[in-house]
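re: that chain from earlier
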Amino acid sequence: MSEPIRVACPHCGGQFVSSQAAGQLLACPHCHRMFRLHDSPADPPVDPPAQPPPPAGAGASSLAPCQRCGQQMQLNASLLGQTLACPSCGWQFTVIAQAGRFYAQPAAGQAGPAAAGMSQHREVGANTVNLLRRTRPWVIFVAVVMLIGVGVGTLGLLVNLGMAGSAGGPTGGMICVVIAIQLVALGMWAFLAVLLLKYGSAIRQLTASGRTADLDRALDAQRAYWLVTGIILIVSIAIALLMFFVMIAFIGSAASHAPPPWAD
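^ sequence. v structure.
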């Protein structure tokens, strides 16, 4: 060790005090580059291996994607080292800086993108859960209205059964056809109401757990509802056409059994 001397860096011009002997390598504390102390002009400065740029300054920021849902998040130096949560899916991460940019690294105990993508127990995005949660009251409302309609239709069915017992001839036959149509319609409405209640229950379970498996159950219940609705629509059109032709046949039968006007 020699006496401390003031040294000027040949790369950036920064000055500092060093006690190293002449001919030894020094690292500039300002630019972090290396040079040989008291180099002769013939000796070029010795550069260190390529180093990554220093972390971004306090005022810098960059966008980083969430490794679970892909949501772009604005990160900056003030968040460096902190553990945060994605505003979209709730995935927890730690802010790190590399090569002048900020990145979201999985926090301790958090799965990375591959594990999160394969797990059936990963969390669904909070926005998705909220949208389905807001849909559930309307799903339950429609199901209850349909069940009330089934109850009212059942009362009408009982009335028609009483009329069919007292009526005879073409009128009794027509009432029997109406009863059969009512039975089919009530059965379809009741089945749709049950599917809607199942859908609402799946949404409630998803809201409580936030798991992907429960989201799959809710979507499957929704798929079943629309499938049955499409089938019922086709059947309803067929029943409407059948009723039309039955009405035509009934009117024709009644006209054929009516006495002619001149018979009086």
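The first strand starts at residue 5 and ends at 8.
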